[in-house]
Structure formats: C-alpha cells, structure tokens
Write a sequence for this structure.
C-alpha cells in the first residue's frame, strides 16, 4: 500500500500536474495540502474522474487539506484540531481509509519569527501533539502525513546557515517535532534514508530547483502498528522539475499489506 503526501500549492492552478502524478504513480492514498480552494470549488469531479474518492477541508485563497483514496471514499473522522476554537485555518483533516487512520496536515509556517505567527505555529504543534497522542491510544495503524514546515535536522537542508533564522528550523520548532516523534511515531523517510540529504521542497526563488538547494519539510509519521509494515519511503523528485509544478515534490511511503 502506497501512501503519499503532496503540497500542491494551489489545486486549481496545479490540477494538470496533480492528475498527471496520480495517473503515473497511482498512490493508494494521497494527502494534499495548500489547496487554496474553498470547499465549494474543490475539483471533486476531476478527482473522481481520476479514480479517487476524497474528503477535504477547504479555505478560499490559502491553506486547505484533503485525503484522496483510490477506488474508495475516505470516512472522515475529524477536521481541525481542538484547543483553539477561534482558529479558522483549514490545516487538518483525518479519515479512516483502507484499514488505516490517516491525517493530512498543513502546519503553519511561522515566519517571521519571533512574533505572533511563530507563537501560533508552536501552539498548533502542541495541539497536534495532543491529537497524535489520542490516535496512538487507539492502537491502530495510522499515518500523520503532510507539510510540517519543520526541518528536523541539519542534514535535512542544503545549507543550515542559510536557514538558521527561519521559523522552519528554530530550536523550538525542532523540539516540538521531536516531542511528537518521541510519542512513538516513526519518521518514514528518515528511517529509510538515515544519512539525510533528501529534499521535498525547492523554493521558486534564487534558482532553488536548478541548484538543488532544497530541504525536507514534508513528513510521513507512522504509528507502531504502521511502522511494523514499513517497506520503503522516498520522494517523487522528478515531478518537481516539470512545467508549472508545485514547489514541493510528493513524498511517499509503502506499507506491507496485511
């Protein structure tokens, strides 16, 4: 079973690239982020035409997350995170699909830091930790997939010095991500590529793609029941180089079927 996460950077603008990727790679489950689409304008017909059912949590112009499943409709479990009722950002959706509990996550960027946006990022990470702990308690195979906007280690970025002041790799961001993993979640990409050097994002600015000046912020965290089935994990890097591509590449893991 192949589970992928893909920040599409605007589902309507990137729809041809998304449909192309679905057709060529055929993931069983695809978690999408940064839809930049309201619920009403989500391209459900196109997604169904590609053979996928979907649940989504949209927001006009920015944010937005979805879970796609090949040949079936995901069963929504939760949208949004508890703990901050006034938070109207569409950044989290969770569903049961194909025997897995799956969440699609779009964590706040947090820049500029310090400041209110970074404070919001840290609060959001704490709320995610609380939800992740509850999912673990259910003792089900689960995958928390998404754009975490956290660079966990220095070898997850082309140049640590260039990013040292960015919210993505502040000590507080990294500590919160480690706390999440230490609950019992397995970082699929890190497990399969322990020496780092795997990028999932290349900025449009300053020739980031052309220079391979990227970093890893898209993660798939596996519960113990899912981690026991881990076969492989990698990045569909070649798709990033296509015309009008997202600045992220799809990141995936393969779990052994039960």
């Amino acid at each position: 079973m192949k589970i992928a996460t893909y920040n599409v950077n605007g589902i309507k603008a990137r729809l041809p690239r998304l449909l192309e990727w679905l057709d060529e790679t055929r993931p069983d489950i695809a978690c999408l982020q940064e839809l930049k689409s309201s619920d009403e304008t989500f391209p459900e017909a196109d997604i169904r035409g590609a053979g996928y059912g979907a649940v989504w949590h949209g927001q006009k112009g920015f944010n937005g997350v979805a879970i796609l499943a090949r040949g079936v409709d995901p069963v929504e479990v939760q949208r949004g995170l508890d703990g901050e009722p006034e938070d109207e950002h569409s950044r989290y959706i969770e569903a049961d699909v194909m025997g897995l509990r799956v969440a699609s996550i779009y964590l706040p960027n947090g820049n500029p830091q310090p400041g209110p946006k970074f404070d919001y990022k840290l609060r959001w990470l704490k709320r995610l930790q609380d939800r992740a702990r509850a999912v673990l308690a259910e003792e089900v195979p689960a995958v928390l997939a998404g754009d975490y906007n956290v660079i966990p280690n220095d070898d997850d970025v082309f140049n640590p010095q260039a990013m040292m002041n960015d919210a993505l790799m502040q000590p507080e961001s990294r500590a919160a991500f480690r706390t999440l993993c230490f609950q019992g979640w397995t970082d699929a990409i890190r497990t399969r590529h322990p020496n780092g050097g795997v990028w999932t994002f290349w900025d449009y600015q300053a020739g980031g793609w052309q220079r391979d000046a990227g970093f890893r912020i898209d993660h798939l965290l596996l519960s113990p029941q899912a981690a026991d089935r881990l076969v492989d994990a990698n990045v569909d890097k070649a798709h990033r180089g296509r015309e009008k591509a997202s600045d992220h590449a799809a990141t995936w893991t393969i779990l052994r079927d039960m």
